[in-house]
């Protein structure tokens, strides 16, 4: 069985199909792990969502910020309603409820002990070891799947709190976990989240670092695969692999083949792009 981790799709269904042809995906024996952001901005979010859901146990996806945005819209939180009209076909689809139910039951973190790999959408704060990251992801999954789902969707947006503490509770705790796993790119040297920073390393303010370069990060010895950061491009640095290579923006779509014993290997296709950067 081959396992492939695939970068952010964001509604680019045709590009996904070309990538699956490139890797010769065999649903009888291969498995796909998607790095989140299945939807939004691209031309066919509804088709992507139906396709990945239809793969059943052969595929899974961690949740990304755009996936959570769709869930928030579905629960009436229009705070950040903007250029997301590409989500309307999902919200108006006859199988809307079935698709959204499936989406809200996706994990925030996937881990394969056999292949010694962990998949998230965005980042981890330096204070978390892998055990804490797994526990925090499960906390958020419980909130999404339970009776607190509506309240969570109405309150999830915001950049505070910036600093992790085990004493955080309630919505501040869930918001911090959300921001790390689905939005994080940069931290300062003290490990505080710098949520407003988005560009490539070297283009930002002094005093902040990519989350995976913060000194003393407790997961520095754990192999981690993540998406979310298209301006970073494909990156293998230490034990982290960044696989959002900007398919939506005319970059590439990346599948990372994760063998049991050998190092992961990227396979990429060029994409025509569906949006201009900044849209």
Automatic annotation (TrEMBL):
<dbReference type="GO" id="GO:0008803">
    <property type="term" value="F:bis(5'-nucleosyl)-tetraphosphatase (symmetrical) activity"/>
</dbReference>
<dbReference type="Pfam" id="PF00149">
    <property type="entry name" value="Metallophos"/>
</dbReference>
<dbReference type="InterPro" id="IPR029052">
    <property type="entry name" value="Metallo-depent_PP-like"/>
</dbReference>
<comment type="similarity">
    <text>Belongs to the Ap4A hydrolase family.</text>
</comment>
<feature type="domain" description="Calcineurin-like phosphoesterase">
    <location>
        <begin position="3"/>
        <end position="130"/>
    </location>
</feature>
<dbReference type="InterPro" id="IPR004843">
    <property type="entry name" value="Calcineurin-like_PHP"/>
</dbReference>
<protein>
    <recommendedName>
        <fullName>Bis(5'-nucleosyl)-tetraphosphatase, symmetrical</fullName>
        <ecNumber>3.6.1.41</ecNumber>
    </recommendedName>
</protein>
<dbReference type="InterPro" id="IPR004617">
    <property type="entry name" value="ApaH"/>
</dbReference>
<keyword id="KW-0378">Hydrolase</keyword>
<comment type="function">
    <text>Hydrolyzes diadenosine 5',5'''-P1,P4-tetraphosphate to yield ADP.</text>
</comment>
């Amino acid at each position: 069985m081959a396992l492939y981790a695939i970068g952010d799709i964001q509604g680019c269904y045709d590009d996904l199909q070309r990538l699956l042809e490139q890797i010769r995906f065999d649903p009888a024996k291969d498995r796909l792990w998607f790095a989140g952001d299945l939807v939004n901005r691209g031309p066919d979010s509804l088709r992507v969502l139906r396709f990945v859901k239809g793969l059943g146990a052969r595929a899974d996806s961690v949740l990304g910020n755009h996936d959570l945005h769709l869930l928030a819209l579905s629960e009436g939180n229009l705070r950040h309603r903007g250029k997301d009209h590409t989500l309307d076909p999902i919200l108006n689809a006859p199988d809307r409820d079935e698709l959204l139910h499936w989406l809200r039951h996706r994990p925030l973190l996937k881990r394969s002990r056999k292949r010694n790999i962990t998949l998230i959408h965005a980042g981890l704060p330096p204070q978390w070891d892998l055990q804490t990251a797994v526990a925090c992801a499960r906390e958020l999954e419980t909130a999404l799947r339970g009776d607190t789902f509506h309240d969570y969707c109405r309150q999830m947006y915001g950049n505070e709190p910036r600093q992790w503490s085990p004493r955080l509770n309630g919505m501040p705790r869930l918001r911090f976990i959300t921001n790390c796993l689905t939005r994080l790119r940069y931290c300062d040297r003290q490990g505080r989240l710098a949520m407003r920073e988005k560009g490539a390393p070297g283009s930002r303010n002094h005093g902040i670092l990519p989350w995976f370069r913060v000194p003393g990060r407790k997961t520095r010895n754990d192999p981690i695969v993540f998406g979310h950061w298209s301006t970073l491009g494909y990156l293998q640095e230490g034990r982290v692999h960044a696989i959002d290579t900007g398919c939506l923006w005319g970059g590439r779509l990346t599948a990372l083949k994760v063998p049991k014993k050998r190092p992961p290997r990227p396979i990429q296709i060029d994409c025509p792009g569906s949006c201009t950067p900044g849209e």
